[in-house]
Amino acid sequence: MAEAYPSTSSEPTAEESAKNRIVKAEEYKQAGNILYKEKSYKMAIGKYHRALLQVRDIDNQRPKPLLKGLMGLAGEGNNVFKQDKNLTNEMTQQVKQLELSCYNNLAACLLHDIDPNYEKIIQYCGEVLKRDSKNPKAWYRQGVALYHTQEYKEAQNCLNKAKRSMPRGM
């Protein structure tokens, strides 16, 4: 009697599936970068979102920072990058860097909008700064967004942090 379902032996392992999703996410991010350079910001935003979706639930044990941020549930104590059981250390670092780049690039794209959503820019910069508290681009973009929301003191603090975070000689 023939089996009703195909054999599961041809299905990728969890690690292979994660690798494939990371590769796909990187492709989306690179496509977004090309669109950004072409000043197609809305289309670039779509690519960066798709990249984030590829890695969002790469392991069911990972917190989902995009959704948590959108719902206002992200807590200070969350360890966003705990080691995933299906990811190697290298893959975890790839995901971390990919998410950091995508959130930073999303903020950059939104700043180019005719009517920027400054709250969203602040949110995306916050995601970057959770991962890299010395990221000068995120501090700068967050400072600009805060300035436009008339949060002048916070904006000044962010812009000062951006300046202090800049590599020497720049």
Automatic annotation (TrEMBL):
It comes from the Eukaryota. Signal peptide: none annotated. TPR repeats lie at residues 136-169. Pfam families: TPR_2 (PF07719). Keywords: Repeat, TPR repeat. InterPro entries: AIP/AIPL1/TTC9, TPR-like_helical_dom_sf, TPR_2, TPR_rpt. This is Putative tetratricopeptide repeat protein 9C-like. It comes from Stichopus japonicus.
